[in-house]
Write a structure and sequence with these properties.
Blueprint lengths: L7 E7 L12 H12 L8 H10 L2 E6 L4 H4 L6 H10 L4 E3 L8 H15 L4 E3 L1 H4 L9 H9 L4 E4 L24 H8 L5 E4 L6 H10 L3 E4 L10 H8 L6 E2 L9 H8 L9 H12 L27 H30 L7 H35 L1
Parallel strand pairs: 1-2, 2-3, 4-5, 5-6, 6-7, 7-8
Helix pairs in contact: 5-7, 7-13, 13-14
């Protein structure tokens, strides 16, 4: 990918059509409603057609499916297809994957496989369509893998065009997409960059607050024509958050030409426009070969992938980062919970004290085991 030749990087593009599996007939009613909401009557493009569309405009894009199979029964576009076609069009496509958090440990295994063998660069979540609160601990097993690899996670926030106007909103519950739930995720996973997708109506102020407070949290501008952006979003994009706002279109639901034409008409400072359109995404996604915000340092070998997977040093770094992230999580959990939950209050105070000391000793032992097990990996990475 020739960054210097790119005009912009769109961090929010959907892969909606598979060339490997037939269209799911359940999608038809949802697509008709979303086309009416977004005023879009064009055909849904395949992934190679999306690549050609962006190449023609000298732009690159992050592309992903949305896995909501558990909640809706809708078949997703395969993550493997997205990653493989993106590899064939690496000059313009950056592959993200999507895994329904309801898949639990199997989802975590899939995430690890996609990172190691398909080179995905991040993950997409849609709380309203997947019917989960982002801070639900059941999703943390998946976040641990993502954070361990130092990759970003995109979360839909705010109103959903999907289901708008359908009977009962198509069963979509907006409550799951309040951006304030991501504040917990940002605290518990400080090494996982978080992108809050879309202007978060009706919770725009909450999104701005979380983004300003947590250094690894960003906002993308997808899903809305810029002429409808809330005034406070424009104000913060020009000032305090100018390095944390990202260009996103939601293509193919909103075309690039329409979004960019409307973006030209809003009051964004000239020096801020290139930050939003390209430079912030370059830094976040590590496309300039520098450290990715919110992640642990990576080996210089990260750019030397072997076909079909990571190089040896890369795999070692991934294992070490996952262990470190796991240790941080359990250390925070223990600090919050061991004093009040590990020992029943009915047990005498002296016995409770001994039990707590035992628990503390156990936790320290686990930490030592984790760090010892990966010390050789870290030394290997540094030598390499």
């Amino acid at each position: 990918m020739d960054i210097e030749q790119l005009v912009a990087i769109d961090v929010h593009t959907h892969a909606e059509v598979s060339q490997r599996i037939p269209d799911d007939p359940l999608w038809r009613a949802i697509q008709e409603a979303s086309a009416n909401y977004f005023k879009d009557e064009g055909p849904r493009p395949t992934i190679p057609e999306i690549a050609a569309y962006y190449r023609e405009r000298k732009m690159a894009c992050v592309i992903f499916p949305v896995d909501m199979e558990s909640a809706t029964g809708l078949i997703r576009v395969p993550n493997e297809e997205v990653a493989e076609v993106a590899a064939e069009n690496a000059d313009v496509l950056i592959p993200f994957a999507s895994i329904d958090p309801a898949k639990g440990k199997m989802g975590a295994r899939e995430a690890r496989r996609l990172i190691e063998h398909f080179g995905v660069r991040g993950f997409k979540f849609h709380p309203s369509m997947q019917e989960f609160y982002p801070n639900d601990r059941s999703a943390y097993v998946l976040y641990e893998v993502i954070a361990g690899a130092g990759l970003p996670a995109v979360f839909h926030t705010g109103h959903s065009g999907i289901g708008t106007g359908m009977r009962g909103g198509g069963g979509v519950r907006l409550k799951y997409s309040n951006p304030m739930y991501l504040d917990d995720v940002a605290v518990d996973f400080p090494d996982m960059p978080i992108i809050m997708a879309h202007p978060s109506f009706p919770w725009q102020d909450e999104a701005l607050s979380v983004c300003m407070h947590k250094p690894q949290v960003y906002i993308d501008l997808s899903g809305w024509s810029p002429k409808y952006f809330p005034p406070q979003l424009i104000q913060y994009a020009n000032t305090l958050l100018k390095h944390k706002i990202l260009f996103g279109s939601d293509y193919p639901l909103i075309t690039l030409d329409r979004w960019l034409a409307d973006f030209e008409q809003i009051n964004i400072r000239p020096e801020v426009r290139p930050l939003i359109l390209k430079e912030n995404a370059v830094k976040l996604l590590g496309l300039d070969n520098r450290h990715v915000p919110g992640s642990m340092p990576t080996s210089s070998a990260s750019s030397r992938r072997r076909p079909g997977g990571q190089s040896g040093p890369d795999r070692n770094w991934t294992g070490a980062r996952e262990a470190w992230s796991r240790l941080r999580y359990w250390r925070r959990w223990a600090a919050k919970n061991w004093r009040c939950t590990c020992v029943p209050a009915t047990i005498p105070a002296s016995t409770r004290t001994k039990s707590r000391r035992c628990f503390s000793t156990w936790l320290s032992t686990q930490a030592c085991l984790l760090l010892t097990a990966h010390s050789r990996l870290l030394r290997t990475c540094l030598i390499s």
